[in-house]
C-alpha cells in the first residue's frame, strides 16, 4: 500500500517539477510548484513526519507560494515570447546537470553498504517519530540557540524586505 | 518499500531544480527552482531521520524551511526592485555589473 502511494506521489512530483521549469507562464509554474510541495507533504507523511508535513503545507504552500502569486500578479508579462524563455546555454546546462545527477547517484550507490540504506536492518521503529512532542523536545532543548538565531534571521529578512521593496523617494 | 528510492527521487528533483536555475531567464521561475532544490534537500534529511529514528533531521528541516522563507521574501523584494528599476524580470537584461 505504502509502495503504491510512494510511486504515485513521486511520479506526480517529477511531472510537476518538469512543469515548474518548463512552463511558459510564471503563474503555471507557481501552481505546479504547489503540486510538487503537496506531493512532498504526502511523502513526509509516509515517512512518519506528520509535523513536517503540516509545516510544509502551512509555510510553503500557504506562505511562500502565495507570496510568489502576489508578486506575479503585480507584474505585466506581455513582452514575453517563447524565444526569450530559455537562456542560450541550455544545452551545456542540461548536460552538466545530468552529469551532476550521475555523480550523486553513483556516490549514493557506493554508500549503500556504509549507510545500510535499502534494507531495514537498522530501521528503528518509528511510532510517533515526527510528532510535535518529539520534535519540540529536541527543538527547544538541545537546539534552542539555533532556533533563536533563526528568529533573528527572520527579523533581518523582514527589515531587508521592507527596505528593498520600499519605493525610493525622489530627491534630486 | 526501500528508503533508497526516496534518495533517487530527491536527487532527480534536485537536478531538475539545477536545470531550472540554469536555463530559465525569468527570475521568478529561477527562484521557484531554488525552492525545488531546497525541498529535495528536506526530503533527504527526513529520509535519514526516519532511517535512524533520530528526530534531529526534522529539526534541521524546520531550519531549512525558515531559511527558505527568508530567502523567498528577500529574493522577491529584489525582483520587485529590479522590475521597478528596469521594467523587466529577464535576467539577461540585468547586467549593470558587467563591463
Account of the protein in words:
The complex is a heterodimer of chains A (172) and B (99). Chain A is mostly helical. Chain A folds into 2 domains: 2-130, Four Helix Bundle (Hemerythrin (Met), subunit A) (Up-down Bundle); 131-167. Chain A contains 7 helices and no strands. In chain A, helix 2 (26-46) packs antiparallel against helix 3 (50-73). In chain B, 78% of the residues lie in helices and 0% in strands. By secondary structure, chain B is an all-alpha fold. The termini of chain B are far apart. The mean pLDDT of chain B is 89. Chain B has a domain at 26-89: Helix Hairpins (Orthogonal Bundle), CATH 1.10.287. Chain B has helices spanning 4-23, 27-52, 56-86. The longest helix of chain B is centred in the last third of the chain and has 31 residues, at 56-86. Classes of the chains: A mainly alpha (172), B mainly alpha (99).
Gap between N and C termini of chain A: 68 Å
Report the sheet with the most strands of chain B, covering strand number, pairing sense and barrel closure: none
Q: What percent of residues of chain B adopt helix (DSSP H or I)? A: over 70%
Assess the beta-strand content of chain B as a share of residues.
Answer: under 5%
Based on DSSP secondary structure assignment, what is the total number of beta strands of chain A?
0
Low-confidence stretches of chain A: none
Strand content of chain A: under 5%
CATH superfamily of the largest domain in chain A: NADH-ubiquinone/plastoquinone oxidoreductase chain 6, subunit NuoJ
Based on secondary structure, the structural category of chain B is mainly alpha
Which regions of chain B have little confidence, pLDDT < 50, spanning 5+ residues? none
Task: Give a quick summary of the entry.
The complex is a heterodimer of chains A (172) and B (99). With 172 residues, chain A is an all-alpha fold.
Q: Helix and strand layout, with pairings?
A:
The complex is a heterodimer of chains A (172) and B (99).
Chain A: H1 2-22, H2 26-46, H3 50-73, H4 90-110, H5 112-115, H6 132-139, H7 144-165
Helix pairs in contact in A: 1-2, 2-3
Chain B: H1 4-23, H2 27-52, H3 56-86
